[in-house]
């Protein structure tokens, strides 16, 4: 576990928190073919995908929220089984202009967890809402869960890999292979990609003590470097986040880091829709 802080944060997020929230609240896709920018979360089981959706909801509501179901007792197994879309309420009758898709997680074995081919289909909009993933059978054309005629709205506009910061160095070769395979498929489709490293408080005692230290932590910077080297993602596409879990009040340091990542997702997705 890491220790040690830089004097200054290596990425400044706190002072931009209000600007980022304003940007997120006012964001509208310029492409009139879509009402919502679609962000797909993928990664190992228990990485915090569903928790991140709840954390975004918490930031937007100004209080801890819990819509995406999570279960800590499912260690090593995916609690999320279905392809599920989450939107966010801005005011009565009005929604934010982006949605998240949550999916079953990758498991360490090659034949368990969500099939890589199913994620590739999701990228192209072929997986319908509510489809229940089967680790032992890939979704095929003609199946009940297959959308044979996806619109631009159905397709994924941003792909985000979620990995716990304290496990980056321990990702198995099999897990890295799965993540890279999905990344390659997204690249071929022109879909932009980001990564979120979660559980930063468990990885670094200084962050556990004060969440505003997220981007000052030397250990967490090392994990970002390591993820960059293993998965090939540029450094400015990798973000650190502390998800809401045991908090009962809003936290400014956590919010700033979440909003920094969210704004970049929306910007990258907007670039994709422009093309």
Beta content: 5-15%
Q: Looking across the biggest beta sheet, what order are the strands in? A: 2-5-1-6-7-8
CATH class: Alpha Beta
How would you name the CATH homologous superfamily? P-loop containing nucleotide triphosphate hydrolases
Number of domains: 1
Could you report the average pLDDT, rounded to the nearest whole number?
91
As a percent range, the share of helical residues equals 25-40%
Q: Cα distance, first to last residue?
A: 42 Å
What labels describe this entry?
Rossmann fold, two-stranded antiparallel sheet, 275 residues, six-stranded mixed β-sheet, 8 helices, alpha/beta, 8 strands, single chain, globular, 34% helix
Describe this protein's structure.
By secondary structure, this protein is α/β, with parallel strands linked by helices. The protein has helices at about 15-25, 50-60, 115-125, 175-190, 200-205, 205-210, 220-230, 250-275, and strands at about 35-40, 85, 90, 95, 100, 160-165, 195-200, 240. The protein has a single domain (about 15-275), classed as Rossmann fold (3-Layer(aba) Sandwich). It has eight helices and eight strands; from the N terminus they run αβαββββαβαβαααβα. Strands 2-5-1-6-7-8 form a six-stranded mixed sheet, with helices on both faces. Helix 1 packs across helix 8 (about 250-275), helix 2 crosses helix 8 (about 250-275) and helix 3 (about 115-125) packs parallel to helix 4 (about 175-190). The longest helix is centred in the C-terminal third of the chain and has 23 residues, at about 250-275.
């Amino acid at each position: 576990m890491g220790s040690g802080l830089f004097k200054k944060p290596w990425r400044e997020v706190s002072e931009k928190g209000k600007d980022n929230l304003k940007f997120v609240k006012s964001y509208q896709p310029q492409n009139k073919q879509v009402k919502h920018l679609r962000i797909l979360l993928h990664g190992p089981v228990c990485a915090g995908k569903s928790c991140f959706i709840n954390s975004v909801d918490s930031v937007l509501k100004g209080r801890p929220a819990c819509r995406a179901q999570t279960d800590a007792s499912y260690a090593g197994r995916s609690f999320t089984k279905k392809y599920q879309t989450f939107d966010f309420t801005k005011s009565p009758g009005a929604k934010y202009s982006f949605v998240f898709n949550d999916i079953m997680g990758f498991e360490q074995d090659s034949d368990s967890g969500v099939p890589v081919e199913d994620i590739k289909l999701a990228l192209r909009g072929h997986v319908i809402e509510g489809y229940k993933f089967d680790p032992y059978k890939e979704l095929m054309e003609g199946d009940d869960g297959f959308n044979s005629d996806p619109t631009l709205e159905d397709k994924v506009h941003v792909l985000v890999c979620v990995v716990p910061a304290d496990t980056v160095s321990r990702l198995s070769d099999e897990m890295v292979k799965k993540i890279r395979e999905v990344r390659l498929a997204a690249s071929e489709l022109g879909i932009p990609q980001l990564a979120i490293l979660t559980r930063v408080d468990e990885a670094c005692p200084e962050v556990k003590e004060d969440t505003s230290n997220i981007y000052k932590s030397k250990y967490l910077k090392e994990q970002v470097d390591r993820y960059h080297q293993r998965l090939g993602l540029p450094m400015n596409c990798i973000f650190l986040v502390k998800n809401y879990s045991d908090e009962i009040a809003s936290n400014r340091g956590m919010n700033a880091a979440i909003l920094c990542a969210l704004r970049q997702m929306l910007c990258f997705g907007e670039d994709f829709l422009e093309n």
